[in-house]
Specification:
The structure is a single chain. The protein has 98 residues and is α+β, with helices and mostly antiparallel strands. Helix content is 58%, strand content 12%. It is built from three helices and four strands. The strands form two sheets. It has a two-stranded antiparallel sheet. It has a two-stranded antiparallel ribbon with strand order 3-4. It starts with a helix and ends with a helix. Bound molecules: zinc ion (ZN). The site of zinc ion (ZN) has 8 residues, from loops.
């Protein structure tokens, strides 16, 4: 029984030495694994989302005609004050104004 314990201690020692020697590589492997895991968790979103059609994180503005909230980057701004969600809204607003 004592011999088995001795062998176990030697194996653990060798394992510790190996881990110590390759700690840089093990860290790299762990880092790599973490990146792979994070990619896997993001994977479903990547499939469904279209990168070029991603919703901008810019401020939302209120359409002056229909009242829809749209991203500032997609809004049509007139004179810096009037904001419209589409050309249709812009045109109907111009028609009602004249
Ligand atoms: Zn509108």
């Amino acid at each position: 029984m004592k011999e088995a314990l001795f062998i176990l201690v030697i194996i653990l020692g060798l394992f510790a030495l190996t881990a110590f020697r390759y700690r840089g590589r093990i860290r790299t492997l762990l880092e790599f694994w973490r990146v792979v895991r994070s990619l896997q968790t993001r994977h479903p979103q990547n499939i469904t989302a279209h990168p070029e059609k991603q919703i901008p994180t810019s401020n939302l503005v209120n359409c002056g005609k229909c009242g829809n909230w749209i991203p500032e980057s997609q809004a049509i701004t007139l004179g810096g004050t009037s904001v419209f969600c589409s050309v249709k809204c812009l045109e109907s607003s111009a028609k009602s104004a004249s």
